[in-house]
């Protein structure tokens, strides 16, 4: 047996490192049962309340109010990252959505969250290697080691329901080995139910985001995301359709089970790493990113449903590497043509046609003011109305405030009925907008819509 130890942790090569004993006394990749996980989530608002009390005491003793507020926000961000990251599961997926939405939150809240929650986009505390090996043995059989010539026992990335190890197949192919955490499915469902129950006390920590709506939408997709066989099927379809594409790279799938997925390894840097690059580079990356989101249905019959930047890499040859196809919407006929017509009518300022079109598509439950509809959908309309639009945090925060003003039982949102197809599109569109705003870019969004959104281009 030969063992190689390096900067990135334990690696076995041509032999095996026996790490089946627990890495620590409490060997739990997804910590605690339902009660314990619920208690950890409940610690978020309780911790915030305790910090608020301490802050009030400091102000009474003469401390500067702005300094105290900044300290409270820093402490809240620290706790959010620690709890959501360690729990993984639905808690971490919720945190990943928050990490995208920070571009829309007020700066005094978003600033401290930016660094910590962004880490949740593609990293989390890893599970013990003994657990990873146990999953491989369970899914691939007792002789699973024969499948690989080499594997790094320290994960390259650890996320919400699984972690990725770098390895090599017997034929020399470098691969990414995605291993699902034991108990991931149960933890996802438990966390999302608890987040809904705690919505009223968690919402103040997230700048007023609709926590219930977010968690409900995530819950409907749990069964899809935990089945790696289904993810492999999706990825194969997109990889075949985009094989040789000059701007996009989707890694080839080698084999999969329900809890293990092995694909080509993709070298690249994180999408968010371009934030400090020159505007020209940011603009090209942003255009590739948003193009992929809208081109998928036309080119491959599949809409990639998870736009968070941890799923995208900038490869050395300048292409956009796309990962994680667990959350998709199958659209064999491309994006819905009525959606394109609605956006076109909105861009043209024809509010009555927008209202009539939405009613015809079943998107309205009752009568609504046409002008209010145009105002509510301005985050989509404004970028589609010009040939070059500047996405930035200031604009995103304005749009968020506009949407928040329309929340409530008697508001416009209460009159909307968003079917599953449009719900996924809405999530992708809003997610894409928040990422573009984080990158601070200028993109020809309208050109992308003209090419990939049926019904949008003028005859």
Strand content: 5-15%
Kindly state the number of beta strands.
16
- What is the average per-residue confidence, as pLDDT, rounded to a whole number? 76
Form type: globular
Q: What is the distance, rounded to the nearest whole angstrom, between the alpha carbons of the first and last residues?
A: 69 Å
Instruction: Report the uncertain regions.
Output: 1-29, 31-38, 40-62, 85-91
Helicity level: 40-55%
Question: Largest sheet, if any?
Answer: 8 strands, antiparallel
- Helix and strand content put the structural class at alpha+beta
Q: What's the total helix number?
A: 18
Report Rg: 23 Å
Give an overview in words:
The structure is a single chain. The protein is of the alpha+beta class and 459 residues long. Among the domains are: 34-122 and 193-216, no CATH class; 337-452, no CATH class. The protein contains 18 helices and 16 strands. The protein has helices spanning 34-60, 65-87, 89-101, 107-118, 129-140, 184-197, 199-202, 211-219, 222-225, 228-241, 279-300, 337-347, 351-360, 370-376, 378-384, 393-404, 420-439, 445-452; strands at 2-6, 9-13, 150-152, 157-158, 162-168, 174-180, 248-249, 253-256, 260-264, 269-270, 302-304, 312-314, 320-322, 328-330, 389-391, 441-443. The strands form 4 sheets. Strands 1, 2, 3, 4, 5, 6, 8 and 9 form an 8-stranded antiparallel sheet that branches. The protein is globular and about 65 Å long. Residues 1-29, 31-38, 40-62 and 85-91 have low confidence and may be disordered.
């Amino acid at each position: 047996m030969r063992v190689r130890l390096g900067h990135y942790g334990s690696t076995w090569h041509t032999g095996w490192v026996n790490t089946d004993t627990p890495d620590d006394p409490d060997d739990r990749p997804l910590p605690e049962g339902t009660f314990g996980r619920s208690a950890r989530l409940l610690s978020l608002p309780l911790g915030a309340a305790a910090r608020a009390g301490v802050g009030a005491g400091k102000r009474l003793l003469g401390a500067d109010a702005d300094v105290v507020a900044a300290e409270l926000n820093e402490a809240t961000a620290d706790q959010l990252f620690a709890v959501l990251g360690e729990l993984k599961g639905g808690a971490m997926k919720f945190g990943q959505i928050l990490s995208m939405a920070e571009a829309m939150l007020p700066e005094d809240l978003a600033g401290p969250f930016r660094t910590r929650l962004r880490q949740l986009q593609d990293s989390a505390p890893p599970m013990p290697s003994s657990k990873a090996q146990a999953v491989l043995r369970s899914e691939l059989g007792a002789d699973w080691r024969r499948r690989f010539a080499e594997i790094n026992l320290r994960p390259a990335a650890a996320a919400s329901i699984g972690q990725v190890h770098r390895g090599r197949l017997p034929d020399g192919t470098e691969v990414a080995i995605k291993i699902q955490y034991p108990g991931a499915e149960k933890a996802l469902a438990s966390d999302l139910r608890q987040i809904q129950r705690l919505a009223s006390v968690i919402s103040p920590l997230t700048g007023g985001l609709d926590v219930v709506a977010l968690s409900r939408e995530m819950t409907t997709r749990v069964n899809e995301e935990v089945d790696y066989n289904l993810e492999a099927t999706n990825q194969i379809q997109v990889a075949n359709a985009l094989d040789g594409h000059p701007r996009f790279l989707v890694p080839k799938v080698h084999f999969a089970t329900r809890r293990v997925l092995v694909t080509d390894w993709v070298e690249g840097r994180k999408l968010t790493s371009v934030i400090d690059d020159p505007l020209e580079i940011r603009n090209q990356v942003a255009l590739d990113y948003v193009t992929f989101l809208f081109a998928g249905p036309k080119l491959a019959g599949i809409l990639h449903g998870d736009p968070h930047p941890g799923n995208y890499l900038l490869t050395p040859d300048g292409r956009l590497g796309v990962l994680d196809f667990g959350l998709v919407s199958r659209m064999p006929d491309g994006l819905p043509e009525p959606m394109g017509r609605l956006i076109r009518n909105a861009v043209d300022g024809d509010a009555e046609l927008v209202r009539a079109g939405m009613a015809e598509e079943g998107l309205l439950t009752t009568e609504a003011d046409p002008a209010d509809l145009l105002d509510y959908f301005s985050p989509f309309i404004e970028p589609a109305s010009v040939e070059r639009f500047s996405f930035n945090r200031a604009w995103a925060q304005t749009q968020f405030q506009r949407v928040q003003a329309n929340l409530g039982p008697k508001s416009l949102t209460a009159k909307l009925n968003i079917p599953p197809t449009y719900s996924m599109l809405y999530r992708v569109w809003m997610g894409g907008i928040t990422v573009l705003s984080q990158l601070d870019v200028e993109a020809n969004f309208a050109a992308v819509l003209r090419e990939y959104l049926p019904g949008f281009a003028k005859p």
